[in-house]
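agent> step 3/5: call structure_predict on target 'FGD4 protein' (Ptilonorhynchus violaceus).
agent> reason: downstream docking stage needs a structural representation; sequence fetched in step 2, passing through unchanged.
tool.input:
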Amino acid sequence: ELGKRAPRWIRDNEVTMCMKCKEPFNALTRRRHHCRACGHVVCWKCSDYKAHLEYDGNKLNKVCKDCYHVIIGCTDSEEKKRKGILEIESAEVSGNSVICSFLQYMEKSKPWQKAWCVIPKQEALVLYMYGAPQDVKALATIPLLGYTVDDTPRSADLPHSFKLTQSKSVHSFAADNEELKQKWLKVIHLAVKGETPECQSE
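tool.output (status=ok):
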């Protein structure tokens, strides 16, 4: 269907990095562009291709490298390199997850920041953290097995927070409300013991 139908555009605020090369966007050097064939948000380097799109009266349109190769019928074998652990697309795991939502996250003495957190069904013992729901690469992963869960926030913490600790590493999370916090804790309490949680519907 590529190029035959107008794509669903992924909104700018759903990504923090180019969906092709995974470079983070910034105001000056990496501005956001949309591929007119697949609707993905890409940087200028990755949108520097043009192809005739059927849905737009066969006019030349800006497309990303991947769509360009498909539309002109050329395959790029090096693109099929094995993906690293962080290169699992958020949309891919969020759609097939035990639980996913935004949580506030804090590491060491850094300030709290918002992260899209996902525990995928196929890896129910790993917590993936993304900058936004449509990012194509995780910022970090936490293998939950063996962590200790502390769900009593201290006065300096956000109200609905909990901590995961293992030897020297401490990860602090906070949900927007108590109900969401309890949903996460239900899944995490099982995962730290190596048990696979049942699906938590959002």
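agent> step 4/5: record observation. Residues 1-79 form a domain with the Herpes Virus-1 fold (CATH 3.30.40.10).
agent> proceeding.
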